[in-house]
Amino acid sequence: MYLLWPIQADGQLVHPIYLNWTYFNIPVGRSLQSMKARFLLALLVLSFHTGCEDSLLEQESGDVPSEAADGKADAVNEGGLGPGLRSLDEPETVDVGVWNLAWFGDEEHGPSDEQLQQHNVATVLAALRFDILGLVEVVSEDAFSRLLADLPGYHGLLVTDPSVALGSEFYWSGEQKVALLVRDRFEIESARVILPEHAWDFGGRPPMEVKLRFWEDGKRRTLVVIVAHFKAMASADGYARRVASAAALEDFLSSEYPTRWVMVIGDFNDDIDTSTYFGHASPFAQLADSPNYRFATDALSEDGVATTTHFSATIDHHLVTDDLAERFVEGSARVLRVDAHIEDYDQSTSDHYPVLTRYDLR
Q1: For the chain, which has fewer Cβ within 10 Å, the N-terminal or C-terminal residue?
Q2: Does residue 295 contact residue 288 with C-beta atoms inside 8 Å?
Q3: Distance of alpha carbon 158 from the chain centroid
Q4: How far apart are CA 24 and CA 104, in angstroms?
Q5: What does the DSSP 8-state code read for residue 341?
Q6: Which domains does the chain have, with CATH numbers?
Q7: Bridge partner list, 328
Q8: Global pTM?
Q9: Is residue 76 a contact partner of residue 61, using CB atoms and an 8 Å limit?
Q10: How far is CA 309 from the centre of its chain?
Q11: Alpha carbon separation from 27 to 2, 45, 117, 122, 248 (Å, rounded)
Q12: Of 257, 317, 265, 321, the residue nearest 291 (C-alpha)
């Protein structure tokens, strides 16, 4: 059972915390003494496991046991930036990630050491080797260019790139931007900003759509990737704008791509089972309940796996159309706890973790 405890700041709700007491095997109806005893026992068990990095890391990252049973690579095992970081690359699947980079390249916000943030991000991505990666909160165009230069075998687009239709009309140099990185085997056919009429609802950051072409197992494939950054804040205004932008996104997908492989990846700034705005349904409930779409990250929400360093909700998601959902590798959704390999991760690199899903597009 999940117990909800709101955090108050200046008398206003800013974010809920979800506590899964069943993890500690504590029925809610038990006496307080029994609950305390079991909770202390659980803390002792967790303390014991801190000496076993692999076990603790698997628990914290939300790894799915079936993935290990299938022989798939664990993203955090050995080598790389710190002990346990290695390639995610699986030749049979298309491995998709999303990562909010926390004011990447901005000298006034986010991590204070821009060179260190650049180094950490580039090293992590070079090690993990996603096939497709959506990025959120990229501020500096120069920092994005340097990131591409540090990742041979990849190319990509920042939303302000001249090839992105409407990009420079809705994004300016000093604000948070969306971007996409892909392996060189993916050809970028076209890119544009979508839903510009709903820019306000998206917090001034309308999504970027990129159409990809590629070969998979000798077959010519196409894929539409949309990178989105929804309005933040667990407030009445933030919630209302997420509701409006979610409805606009659903209308767009149903009219533009009723039978295509389409994925929407990004920072949704809310969960899909219940809203981070206390006492409200998820603003994405209509998408989550529709047979035409699936949140490939739904298991992460169900298990209460956090995608950020400070809050317990799952707010970074991958949404796919039903046609693409048929190719989703069940059990592949994971939050990658790269903070285990980076000192002061939330201060030096980001306050979000990368989120992975896999697809068999052969």
Answers
A1: N
A2: yes
A3: 17
A4: 37
A5: G
A6: 2-49 (no CATH), 67-359 (3.60.10.10)
A7: 359
A8: 0.79
A9: yes
A10: 13
A11: 11, 18, 43, 45, 41
A12: 321
Q: Which two tokens stand for residue 338?
A: 């790269």
Dihedral pair phi/psi, residue 31, rounded to 5°? -70, 160
* Cβ atoms 94, 133 nearer than 8 A: no
> How far, in Å, CA of 104 to CA of 337, rounded?
19
What are 144-178's pLDDT values in tens digits? 999 999 999 999 999 999 999 999 999 999 999 99
DSSP for 11-74 reads TEEEEEEEEEGGGGT--TTS-HHHHHHHHHHHHHHHHHHTT-HHHHHHHHHT--HHHHHTTPPP
Instruction: Name the packing angle between helices 141-149 and 114-128 (round to 10°).
Output: 40
Q: SS3 of 6, please?
A: strand
pLDDT 10s digits, 26-63: 333 333 344 334 433 333 333 333 333 232 233 233 33
Q: What token pair was written down for 60?
A: 């914290």
CA nearest to 14, candidates 252, 232, 228, 195? 232
The position carrying tokens 């909770």 is 39
| Residue in the structure block whose two tokens are 């990666």 | 133
